[in-house]
Amino acid sequence: MSRHPIEVRGYRGPDPLPRLALFAAAGTAIALLAFAAKPLFGNSPAQRRRELEDDAPRRLSRERAGSPAFVGKSVLINRPRAELYDFWRDFELFPQFMENIRAVEVNGDVSTWTIAAPAGQTVTAEVEVVEDLRNERLAWKSTPQSQIETKGTIDFRDAPAGRGTYVDALIEYKPPGGAVGRAIADLFRREPHVQARHDLKRFKMLMEAGEVSTSWRTRRQS
Amino acid sequence: MRALTYHGTKDVRVDTVPDPEIINPRDAVIKITSTAICGSDLHLYDGVIPGTLNGDILGHEFMGEVVETGPKSTLKKGQRVVVPFTISCGKCYFCEKQQFSACDNANPAEKQDMTEQLYGHAVGGLFGYSHLTGGFSGGQAEYVRVPYSDVGPIVVPDHLDDDKVLFLSDILPTGWMAADNADIEEGDTVAVWGCGPVGLFCIQSALLMGADRVIAIDHYSRRLELARQAGAQVIDFKQTNVTEALMEMTGGIGPDAVIDAVGMESHGFSLGDQAQAFNLADTIKQKVGIGADRGGALREAIFACRKGGRLSMPGVYGGFVDKFPLGALMEKGIQIKSGQTHVQRYLNQLLRLIEEDKIDTTFMISHRLPLEEAPKGYKNFKDNQNDWTKVVLKPGV
Ligand SMILES: NC(=O)c1ccc[n+]([C@@H]2O[C@H](COP(=O)([O-])OP(=O)(O)OC[C@H]3O[C@@H](n4cnc5c(N)ncnc54)[C@H](O)[C@@H]3O)[C@@H](O)[C@H]2O)c1
Ligand SMILES: [Zn+2]
Ligand SMILES: [Zn+2]
Fold it and tell me: Mind telling me which residue stretches traverse the membrane in this protein (chain A) (predicted)?
């Protein structure tokens, strides 16, 4: 996967200050204070990174930065790359596994995504494909007319020994202004990771098992 | 339809609820002819497995007649089937490796977060066994929706009665897999903790797989009698110190393989006995909801197991076990295998053993009740374990 400059937002990484205050208030020994303060002055994760950058996807870095909401997720699917690429290339199929996408209408390279927002509202994103490497990678970006600013990539890599395909998705969005914007910001801020994780799991179910699992007993529940 | 539903700890009732329907293409709907109460259901009944909601239909051991099929089901209306308690898609990496209970796709996406947090990975889907395993409606009911009906259910011949084949749904393959996981070798002595239905099938399976001797442990005389009937020597842990007895019965070597068919609600806290003494503390923690499982039998099994021996653990655990004898495990070099049963892996083989009368699947059934009396079944299976060894429920009677 490509290294991405924007970091996960909303992640609560190690925050030394409350710990410091707590220990000080409790009047604990200086040794403890020194220990708690260590990340502030000493061997911070950022400094350690300069010595050796590990091989985990950059989006998982413990360092906090960046403003747009950002989601990255990887899933191993027991199907060949081409099959997954073909399905994903057909944006109109998104509503089958993406919970918040109500409908997608495709016109050539531009497509319009109707996205469910809180309080029964919907917003639309107008999106164009900016990179299309057959069976390998798709990248898209919102057009200037879009209500939401968004971009994303999805990469398909062979897993070893016939174990299928690693699918890596990166999606980034800046909510619009105004009331609707705030509602959407809320929606995305609430659970962007959960949403992406669930969507990709449903994609995997659909590709492997041919249907999205549910424990509903009656159709009325849907 | 009528169905046994959960309403809180030790409170189950038979209610009228909406009938199940075909939702997905691979579904089938089964009209249930026989269904059983399992020791695993008691963990739900006792409230020690989280994520069961009021109104959930319980039951994961059931069989019946196919009455409706989705367009991608391979079943036909009128067929008589036994349904595995593990829901498995048959297509994912795990299903292809025959690790059916680890199926990646059965547990609905929105239900996977809980066990991902708890265990590091989402677990598979099970019928009637809390929302941790998917929140699927169970089979202590008149009808049930069966997902992936093209890979799960096994069609059974008409000449075999329900009683004979019903336990293919869970406890027979569970006992069989427990023995399989014990990697039994010729001449082995195998010790089995718990003479409930699972333990009783462990005994029969271990002997069929070539164990020289099985020693079974419990404290209910009726259950110990059944164990003997299945071919085991028995130890009553209320009468005798189990670890001492096992050493003496094996010339100081200890059993080659030990099987924990008790699980997270182990009984007994004899204080003179190191492996069991901690069980008292476990019980208190479990009562106040600290998420600690009661591991008395498990500790004792590890303590008794010979050096380089094998531990097989069909007994269900949900959280953490304190005072786990990790030192004994490591220093003696013991192998552990465990898991919810990969039912689909064993079905054909076990159906054949039933047909050939090599395995007795009916001797542990103590009570047959109409579904309407299921709450009475739960209460007695819990409180009168000596006499209530296995309860089969009949809907529509
Ligand atoms: N792995 C699986 O897929 C799977 C499937 C079915 C059942 N199970 C589990 O297997 C276990 C047994 O199921 P069951 O239906 O036989 O239950 P059960 O409750 O009928 O039997 C348990 C037996 O263990 C005995 N026991 C309790 N404490 C003991 C101790 N310290 N030493 C020796 N014996 C002790 C009890 O007296 C009882 O007879 C349960 O934990 C159940 O959840 C697992
Ligand atoms: Zn069971
Ligand atoms: Zn599967």
Answer: 20-41
Count the Cβ atoms, other than its own, within 10 Å of residue B368.
17
Q: Determine the Cα–Cα distance for residues B321 and B319; give it in Å rounded to an integer.
A: 7
Find the domain containing B108 and state its range. Answer: 2-170+341-394
- Chain B contact for A73 (CB, 8 A cutoff): no
- Give, using CA atoms, the residue closest to atom 11 of ligand 1: B315
Ligand 1 and B217: CB distance under 6 A: yes
With 0.80 as the threshold, say if the pTM is over it.
Answer: yes
Q: Do B322 and B180 share a structural domain? A: yes
Q: Is B201's C-beta closer than 6 angstroms to any atom of ligand 1?
A: no
Q: Which atom of ligand 1 is nearest to the CA of B316?
A: 41
| Spatial strand order in the sheet of A69-77 | A69-77, A165-174, A149-158, A137-142, A122-133, A110-116, A101-107
Q: Is the CB of B266 under 6 A from ligand 1?
A: yes
Quick one: tokens of A156? 């398909």
Round to whole Å and give the CA distance between B270 and B307: 25
Same domain, B35 and B148: yes
Which residue, B307, B338, B369, sits at the end of a domain? Answer: B338
Domain final position from B313, B338, B363: B338
Taking CB atoms and an 8 Å cutoff, what residues of chain A touch B110? 198
Q: Is B205 left (phi over 0), alpha (psi -120 to 50) or beta?
A: alpha
At B246-292, the pLDDT tens digits run 999 999 999 999 999 999 988 876 555 666 667 777 777 777 666 67
Give contacts of B89 with chain A, Cβ < 8 Å: 205, 208-209, 213
Of 3.30.465.10, 3.40.630.30, 3.30.530.20, 3.40.50.1390, which CATH number belongs to A61-211? 3.30.530.20
Total domain count, chain B: 2
Provide the CB-side half-sphere exposure for B386 (13 A, CA): 5
What distances in angstroms separate CA B349 from CA A122, B1, B177, B294, one per listed residue? 54, 34, 12, 34
Same domain, B79 and B148: yes
C-alpha span between B87 and B284 (Å, rounded): 34
Characterize B224-250 residue by residue with b for buried, 16 or more Cβ atoms within 10 angstroms of its Cβ, and e for exposed. bebbeebebebbebeeebbbebbbebb
Q: Point out the least confidently predicted range of A175-189, B13-27, B209-223, B340-354.
A: A175-189
Q: Which two tokens stand for residue B311?
A: 């531990």
Mean pLDDT for the stretch of residues B189-200:
98
Delimit the domains of chain A by residue range. Answer: 14-49, 61-211
CA of B170 from ligand 1 middle (Å) equals 13
- Contact B58/B38 with Cβ under 8 angstroms? no
Query: Which ligand minimizes its atom distance to the CA of B107?
Result: 3
Domain check: are B57 and B132 in the same one? yes
- What is the Cα–Cα distance from B166 to B141, expressed in whole angstroms? 15
Using the structure block, give the residue that is written with the tokens 């009368």: B357
Give the CATH number for residue B353: 3.90.180.10
Inter-chain touch B137–A217, beta carbons under 8 Å: yes
CB atoms within 10 A of CB A6: 16
Claim to verify: residue B280 and residue B359 sit in the same structural domain: no
Judge if ipTM > 0.90: yes
d(CA A184, CA A173): 10
